[in-house]
């Protein structure tokens, strides 16, 4: 993901200027007229359910446990990114066809905007072993009650989608 504000047009290389377009200040190329829009970045994560437990990972360099997931590569569909990230981070493998779309929620983190696409799969529909991947310090199933009673240990956006998944 690139979150660098452009100074030059990626179409022709001219220095950008600021103009009001559609009621907002946007960077525009004075040479070719290209308007540089800033869009929310897609991200995809997976809720792996084992009855009333959910698979969470403890990523390196972060304070909270979170659902496995990440950003789609340029050629990937979100569901393919979700299954790839799940395997990379937790050792658990799922087929894209087995994932069910739960929600798409807008989120902000460090002043960046995301569209978080969340999928659900039952643990019995997966393969592999629960082992931390290279981005995870630890991976384990957490009871829902612990997740909802430990807001300092888990991400708010994850608790929000878990409420949808478990009808809480």
Quaternary state reads single chain
What share of the residues lie within helices? 10-25%
CATH homologous superfamily of the largest domain, by name?
A: Nucleoside Triphosphate Pyrophosphohydrolase
Q: Helix tally?
A: 3
The helix/strand order is: EEEEEEHEEEEEHH
CATH class of the largest domain: Alpha Beta
Radius of gyration over all CA atoms, rounded: 19 Å
Q: Please report the total strand number as a whole number.
A: 11
Low-confidence stretches: none
Give the tally of structural domains: 2
Mean pLDDT: 92
Please identify, by name, the CATH architecture of the largest domain. Answer: Alpha-Beta Complex
- What class do helices, strands and sheet pairing give? alpha+beta
What does this entry look like structurally?
This protein has 168 residues and is an alpha+beta fold. The protein has 2 domains: 1-38, Single Sheet (Ubiquitin Ligase Nedd4, Chain: W), CATH 2.20.70; 41-165, Nucleoside Triphosphate Pyrophosphohydrolase (Alpha-Beta Complex), CATH 3.90.79.10. The protein is 17% helix and 38% strand. It has 3 helices and 11 strands. The protein has helices spanning 78-90, 144-149, 156-165; strands at 17-21, 24-28, 35-36, 41-50, 53-59, 69-70, 92-93, 100-109, 112-122, 127-128, 136-143. The strands form 3 sheets. Strands 4, 5, 6, 8, 9 and 11 form a 6-stranded mixed sheet that branches. A 3-stranded antiparallel sheet has the order 1-2-3, with no helix packed on it. It is elongated and about 60 Å long. The two termini are 33 Å apart. The model has no long low-confidence stretch (mean pLDDT 92).
